[in-house]
Design goal:
elongated; 81 residues; mainly alpha
Length: 81
């Protein structure tokens, strides 16, 4: 792993300084756009949310699937069918 990083460092050092600056600027602009997008999404999501919280009971998906909550089935028999 160290050799791989050493090779990458050598390749980076072999680039002209002008190209290094250009790549660094591109990476920085990409990071800046990504950060602005995430911050924008957070602001958008928090701005449109309402203050009401929906509280509902947790339902058993197996009972919901059967349609008859009075007759629960064993999960092994459900998956064997």
């Amino acid at each position: 792993m160290d050799r791989y990083f050493d090779k990458l460092d050598e390749r980076w050092q072999a680039l002209p300084v002008r190209k290094q600056h250009k790549y660094t600027l591109y990476f920085f602009v990409g990071y800046l756009l990504l950060t602005a997008g995430v911050i924008g999404k957070v602001v958008y999501d928090t701005g449109k949310s309402n203050d009401a919280i929906d509280i509902m009971h947790i339902e058993n998906p197996i009972l919901k699937k059967n349609g008859n909550p009075a007759i629960p089935q064993d999960t092994v028999s459900i998956f064997k069918k």
